[in-house]
């Protein structure tokens, strides 16, 4: 029978540090995807693997201070990942690396293509672009909810917000995505995007 996160963490704290690599394997893809999405709006996605590794390194170094009564391991890990990315973005800004300005980035109108597959791909790209234009907290909330399927309480813990604030962030994020897409696809709804994403 597979060990739970709690059992593994207890054993790691007792000295069985080899188990941490198994714990990493459980979450590596999710954390990498989250970090990648957070970096994409600043065109720094090439740093995703490094910051993912840094996240796990920080988690390992401070695992002794992790307490399950405060949060689940996955919530704690996402929080470390988000803080690691925000710290890197601040560093990049102070080094005067130009970051994409907030606001809507103009997207070239798409040409009419007969193939549905191409059109669908272009729609998904436009949705991703719209998500990248969101303010950081709205973007993080939307990624955690729609891509990682976390519940409101987990997202609230990661972002340091109340559940009602998270619901408000998600409402504003979804509304903004729809507004940004209207000039290109008046018929595209967020629900349609959800259907495409699951395919």
Helical content, roughly? 55-70%
Quantity of strands, as a count: 0
Average pLDDT number: 80
Global shape:
globular
The main β sheet shows up as:
none
Radius of gyration: 19 Å
Q: Per DSSP, what share of the residues sits in E-state strands of 2 or more residues?
A: under 5%
How many helix segments? 9
What is the CA-CA span between the terminal residues?
Answer: 32 Å
What's the order of the H and E elements? HHHHHHHHH
Instruction: Look at the helices and sheets and give the structural class.
Output: mainly alpha
The stretches of 5 or more residues where confidence is low (pLDDT under 50) are 97-115
In short:
This protein has 199 residues and is mainly α.
Helix and strand arrangement:
Elements: H1 5-13, H2 19-40, H3 48-61, H4 73-94, H5 116-132, H6 136-147, H7 152-159, H8 163-181, H9 190-197
Can you give keywords for this protein?
0% strand; 199 residues; mainly alpha; globular
Please characterize this protein's 3D structure.
The protein is built from nine helices and no strands. With 199 residues, it is mainly alpha-helical. The protein starts with a helix and ends with a helix.
